[in-house]
Structures are given as C-alpha cells and as structure tokens.
Amino acid sequence: MLSQIYSRNFERVIFFSEGEARGIIAIHSTTLGPALGGCRFREYQSEEAALNDVLLLAEGMTYKASLAELNLGGGKAVLFKSGKISDRKKLFETFGEIVGSLNGMYITAEDLGTTAADMDVVASKTIYVRGTSKFGDPSPYTALGVVEGIKACLNFLFGSEDLTGRKILIQGVGAVGQELVKILAATEANLIISDVDESKTNLLRQQFSNIQVCDPSKIYDIEGDIFCPSAVGQVINKDTAQRLKVKAIAGAANNQLDDPSTLTILSQRKIIYVPDFVVNAGGLIKVAHENANDQKSMIDKIKAIKSRVTKILKLSQDTGATTLEIALDLAKQRLEQAKNLKQSKN
Asked: Fewest Cβ atoms nearer than 10 Å: which of 85, 164, 201, 208?
C-alpha cells in the first residue's frame, strides 16, 4: 500500500479511524490550488481496493481541474461503509473535523454514496466543503458537460453535432445519468439505457417516448453512435472493448478504463475514446463556482468542454497519440507552468 503512494507522487495520503468514520483522504496535487474532490461512502472488499480507488480518483481530479482551467488541485476521500451505520450524522461530523484539521489543503464535496445533506453536516464542522444543499445538486452540470463532449464527437465523426436520430447508449441512470437522459431525450436522439435498478429505467421509459431499456449485461453488444458509461468505473476492459459496436465513448463515469492498454483495442476497432476527466468536468466547474455568484462564467466554462474535446480529437488524429496521452499532456503542461512560476517567485 505504501509503495503505491510513493510511486504515484502523492503529496499526502491520510488514513483515519475514529468511531464509525473510517477512510482515506488522498491529496494528489496542490500545485494549482487547494485539492478539491468529493467524498465517497461505499463498501470496499479491502483497504487495498479502497486505496486504489481513492488514488485513481484524486489523480484524475488533478487533471480534470487543470484542463478545465480551474485554480484547484486534485484530491478525493473515501469512507468505508460496512453494515448499518448507527449514527450517520455523527460520522459526517467526525469526517468534517478531519477535513478541517487539514486547514484548507483539501476541500470535500458530495460524491457516490453521499448527499447534500451529508455535506451540510460536514459544513457544521469546517468551511472546507462544497456541494451543500444551499447550492444545489451539481449532477445537471456534469450532464451538460457530457452532452457538449458528445456533440464534439458527433461533429468530428459526421461533420455535424446534430443529435436528431443518433443512437446514444447510456449505462447507468443515477443522479448524472438521469440528467443526461433528460437533456438528450429533448434533442430527438434515440436512447438505449440500462441500470441495475429497473425502477429507474422504467420511470424514464414512462417519461420519454424515444427511450428503450436493455439488460445491463447486453448494452455493450448494441450497435450505436455513442456509448456513455455513467455508473461505476473500469467498465471498459479487454472484453467489453471487443464487444462494443459504437463509434465513440464519452460518458460521466470516472476511471472508465480498467487499464490504458485497453486503448489499443479501441484504436484497432476505430472507436474514439474521450477521457472521462475531460468530458465529465461540468460538476467540478459548478462546485468551483459556488461562491463566485457568476452563472454565465460557469456555463461558459462548461460549454468550453466541447472545444476542448475537439482539440484533443484533432491532435490525436494528427499525431497518432492516444486521446488519453494528449489529454494528460495538456493537463500536465499547465501544472508544469504553474510549478515553474512558483519556483521563479521563490
């Protein structure tokens, strides 16, 4: 576990255990500003699995913030969920105190398994929190950014970003996936959706006429234009990459690739992959602007995801480098510039 932390150049990784509040806070980089990233509350098979998850997510937040041109670093927290919690409020009060003890190096927010109400409790113990009920759910803004990324893919592939009649496959209709469905359904796209929770897919099918529901295990085998992973991570692996019958992947889930080598299969099959930390940055942008009271600037930054995706796709086409390599290079360039500026001032 320690070798993982050292080899991946994290600034700080904190393991904590106090009462029912057990977990990890990972701070990957504060080069551009304080590390902002949500807190996950879920069951893990082991501490090693939790560590791997939080490290991947925190590093992704660094690159997401950099590419979105935000003055923020990358961090993440995970809370271990095991059985029934006797006092959820106390758990998040304790977590808030732990976040506060870092004096602003890490700012937490809502994520998988946590709610705005949980962040309200955290806010009773520290100012270093975003995503409280005062500011609303960031999910619609994440979905808006993903749609901008989808438009960029369509324009790159077909010379038009018109969604009419395009077949979009959406895996997972949780908080972000539902918002994605609502936006895309209004465009007259043809949507194929799946989720392990049938009640969610059935409700959406009743609301919109241009939606079909498929079995979660079969969504990789359906022919379409765009595949949108919007649930758990690491769903693009050597098996699913061979099964996919789409032209591009652009979705809201984090850490969609199980391994970068999977990109070789996608490339051989001429399937475009848009790195998740590029296309799903809308929620982070929204949270970053909570105290700015500038709605237009926030929306403009989210809509800029389309031009950013277009740039990455064109550079990949021109250079032969993967879209992931291009996106990481662009993110690291901004980080390096900031680091050099700090050093010159010192």
From this structure: 164
